[in-house]
Amino acid sequence: MIAEEKKVSKLKGKVAVITGGNSGIGLATAQRFVSEGAYVFIAGRRQSELDAAVKQIGEKNVSGVHADVSNIADLDRLYAVVEEQKGRIDILFANAGVSEFAPLGKITEAHFDKIFSVNVKGLLFSVQKALHCFMMAAQLF
Description:
This protein has 141 residues and is α/β, with parallel strands linked by helices. The chain has a single domain (2-139), classed as NAD(P)-binding Rossmann-like Domain (Rossmann fold), CATH 3.40.50. Helix content is 54%, strand content 14%. The protein has 5 helices and 4 strands, in the order H-E-H-E-H-E-H-E-H. A 4-stranded parallel sheet has the order 3-2-1-4, with helices on both faces. Helix 4 runs parallel beside helix 5 (109-139). The longest helix has 31 residues, at 109-139. It starts with a helix and ends with a helix.
């Protein structure tokens, strides 16, 4: 019983944001964080998958925010929701990513732009836009 109490409270009171949290590793991480006591915001591009993920996690200590990490306005909205509801971030898992393989001779500029927009631009700005919310967390201590 004591081990179970430690597991439940390991992240108690922590606020996490997980991009790409509506499937795969992101969803599994969100489930684990919630089970360990964190409040988790999951961000995803597809509303139906986001809603299903929230329901799967159990709708307790989790919020889904429709956001595409390659869209700066979506990231601004994501962090505005986090700041409004929780005031800070303790954990960021910048997990969103896409992969579309193509032979070197078949890669188009649109293909390249899509991959880099999510995997590079999305990662960088997911972290940059979160800095303010991390600073809010630091002020609490």
